[in-house]
């Protein structure tokens, strides 16, 4: 199962966003709000149009945990769908199973949600699915397995995370251990700090 295993804090500092949504990343951004490296403080020049576009792609890629080829393939699929390409891309990213687990409040971060799915702790419509990139559909019921429901880390997340599930995902069923995809997410319901139009411009060159 391919995934990014490099330094996470450096990525967050380079893009000026807490990409992996962990406490360490936020602390470092607060302490050092400039790019990493010896000359990080001195990098004050105006970024080029290409750099801005590339940064937006990198943000989306790292937030959702995709590698370069996976992201490019998803973009190609987004261009073949009806509607706005950038919104199609974000919608498909939001419908990944690991992201749904994160949005439901069972995992504190998307990497943790990916781990839960990979370890076979999640079911879709009653059947176990261990593929983080699995794309859910409208009406699908995503739930935790019986074993997962007794795990301290998941109960801790449910009790302590101050996170509201998006409007397109109905949570709270089965004591909070199940969620239903009530609808397909729209752009206003996707709260990631990404300007998807810049990604489209980058791939359109």
Explain what you see.
With 205 residues, the protein is α+β, with helices and mostly antiparallel strands. The protein has 2 domains: 8-93 and 193-203, Orthogonal Bundle (Ribosomal Protein S4 Delta 41, Chain A, domain 1), CATH 1.10.1050.10; 97-184, RNA-binding S4 domain (Structural Genomics Hypothetical 15.5 Kd Protein In mrcA-pckA Intergenic Region, Chain A, Roll). 45% of the residues lie in helices and 9% in strands. The protein contains 10 helices and 5 strands, in the order αααααααβββααββα. The protein has a 5-stranded antiparallel sheet. The radius of gyration is 18 Å and the shape is globular. One of its GO terms (cellular component) is small ribosomal subunit. Residues 26-46 are annotated as: Disordered. Residues 3-94 form the Small ribosomal subunit protein uS4 N-terminal domain.
What is the topological layout?
Layout: H1 8-15, H2 23-31, H3 49-63, H4 68-80, H5 85-94, H6 97-103, H7 110-118, E1 122-124, E2 127-128, E3 141-144, H8 146-149, H9 152-160, E4 169-173, E5 178-181, H10 196-203
Antiparallel strand pairs: 1-2, 1-3, 3-5, 4-5
Helix pairs in contact: 1-2, 3-10, 4-5, 5-10, 6-7
Family: Belongs to the universal ribosomal protein uS4 family.
Region (Disordered): 26-46
Keywords: Ribonucleoprotein, Ribosomal protein, RNA-binding, rRNA-binding
Overall mean pLDDT stands at 88
Count of individual domains: 2
**CATH domain class name of the largest domain:** Mainly Alpha
The CATH architecture classification of the largest domain is: Orthogonal Bundle
Could you please say which CATH topology of the largest domain applies here?
Ribosomal Protein S4 Delta 41, Chain A, domain 1
Regarding quaternary structure, what we see is: single chain
């Amino acid at each position: 199962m391919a995934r990014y295993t490099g330094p996470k804090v450096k990525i967050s500092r380079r893009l000026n966003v807490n990409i992996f949504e962990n406490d360490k990343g936020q602390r470092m951004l607060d302490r050092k709000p400039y790019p990493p490296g010896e000359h990080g403080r001195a990098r004050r020049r105006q970024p080029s149009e290409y750099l801005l576009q590339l940064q937006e792609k990198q943000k989306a890629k790292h937030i959702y945990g995709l590698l370069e080829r996976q992201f490019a393939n998803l973009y190609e699929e987004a261009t073949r769908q009806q509607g706005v390409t950038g919104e199609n891309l974000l919608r498909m990213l939001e419908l990944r199973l690991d992201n749904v687990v994160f949005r439901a409040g069972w995992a504190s971060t998307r990497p943790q949600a990916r781990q839960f799915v990979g370890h076979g702790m999640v079911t879709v419509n009653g059947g176990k699915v261990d593929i983080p990139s699995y794309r859910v559909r409208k009406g699908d019921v995503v739930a935790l397995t019986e074993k997962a429901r007794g795990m301290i880390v998941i109960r801790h997340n449910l009790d302590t995370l101050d996170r509201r599930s998006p409007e397109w995902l109905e949570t709270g069923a089965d004591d909070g251990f199940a969620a239903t995809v009530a609808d397909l997410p729209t752009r206003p319901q996707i709260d990631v700090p990404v300007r998807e139009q810049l990604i489209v411009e980058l791939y359109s060159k």
